[in-house]
Every structure is written in structure tokens, then in C-alpha cells.
Amino acid sequence: MAAYLLRRLLIAVPTLLVIATLAFVLLRATPGGPFDGDKPMMPEIRRSIEARYHLDDPLWQQYLRYLGDLAQGDLGPSFQYRNTSVNELIAQGIPVDIIIGGSALLLALLGGGALGMLAALKRNSWLDHLGMSIAVLGISVPVFVIAPLLILVFAIRLQWLPPGDWVAGSWRHALLPVLALACPYLAYIARLMRASTIEVLASPWMLAARARGLSTHSILLRHALRPALLPVVAFLGPAFAGVITGSIVIETVFGLPGIGRHFITGALNRDYTVVMGVTVLYGALIIAFNLLADLCQAWLDPRVRLK
Question: Is the pLDDT of residue 307 over 60?
């Protein structure tokens, strides 16, 4: 286990280096700069600002300086938000993303797992067809359509929940974003759970458990649940990447003060350090969650070897 973790961590370092390098090169290759506004700027002022942020240095020097700061955990200053570092912007927005994304994944795992197991137990019944029809609908309709529909129904028509904004600690402000973000992943997990549960229940050792007179409840919870969760756990690693990209849309629709808002603003305003900082952070989180998913697979099934 220790050797496996060390090997994965050693692989993560060059992966993050490639991500940071691509972000640096692509941002520098795009036309315009962080201080190209609608109003023309005096050449002396522009040179002074560029010298302050070392933008007048050769690109290779800027790249090496950025890597040195990144190795120390410093993502640099923001070009658009004065006297504010990228670390401070991320620290302000990451709690919102953790609450929304984590709650959405938890809801998708619990709801999709329960729906998939129920559909597998009632295979080819009306419950099975209804549940899988809902799952297909959840997969087919994109998040940017689901979110306005939820606002229209629950905020405007019924007036049960607020249509947007963010109040820390208020579940009413978090419920609609969580539901909108969780819908497609709940549908995917439901389909995966149904297929894996059907396969597990048809295995010879499950038939032997039934022959010994074990109840359906005991068979499901004690014997079928852990192996049936294996495909779902494998899906959760890449699903986290989808939650990250989907949260950008959710933050825009509901007006949430998350990291995605800074990412979009930074991309539009050529705020290099903000875009690179958020990109590197997202890459690190995706690598970490994929590693966690692999470890969970080994815990659920001892036959899985971490090689």
C-alpha cells in the first residue's frame, strides 16, 4: 500500500507540471493581455505596471518564476483584483464549491444507489422501467437546462426557495444548486448500480446464499452491496471532474461566489495567475479523488490488487 501511494504521488508531480505548463503556454499565446482595457493606457504607466508584475521579463523567466512560486504554494497575485492574491480568492470560493459539489455527489450516491438497487430487485417491472426512464431523462437533459427549470418551478411559481444568491449556513440557498448539479450523476449511478446489482445477484455464490435460506435484506446488505458498489466507486473519480466543470455553470446560474466565477472572470480579463491557479487546483483535486477511488475499490474488494 505504501509503495503504491508513493508511486502515485510521484506520478502526480509531473502531471501537475504538464497541466501548469499547458495553462501557461496557452494563456500567453492568446491575443491581448491583462491590462488591455477599453481605455488606452499611457505607455509609461503600462511599462510600470508590467515591471511590477515581471511581465516585461522574457517568457522563460516568467515561467521559471511561476514554477518556483508554485512549488512554495504561492499562486501569485491577481492582475484584476488589486492587493489580492490568487490564494485569497481560492480560499474565499472553495468553501462554496466544497458544500455544493460534496453535497451533490453525496445525494447522487445515496439516491442513485437506492434507485439502482430497487430497479434491480424489481427487474422488468413498472418500477424498473420508471426508474430507468427517469435516469435516462437525467442523463439527457444538461445542467444548464435543469437549473433554470428548478428556479422556474420552486423559486418563481411555488416560491418555496430563493432563486439564487448565497448565504453561508442556509440550506434553502444551497438546495436548488445541489439538486441541479446532482441530477445527471444520480442518473448515471442509478444505471451503474442496477447493472452491477443484477450481475452480482446472478453470481453462483449469491445463489448459494439464497439456497441457505438467507433473507433478501441480509443478502443485499451483507453480501451484494460491496461488490455492487465497485463500478460506482470507479465512476466517482471521473465524476468529480464533471462536478467541477458543472459547478461553473451552477455558480453562473445561481450567482454563487465560488471559484468558477473567478475562473470565468479571469479568462475573460486575461488574468493569467487566476486561471492558472484554478486550473492547477482542479487538476490536483481530480488526481487526489481518482487515487481515493482506487483505494476505495481495494477496500471494497480484497481481490483488487494495487499494481
Answer: no
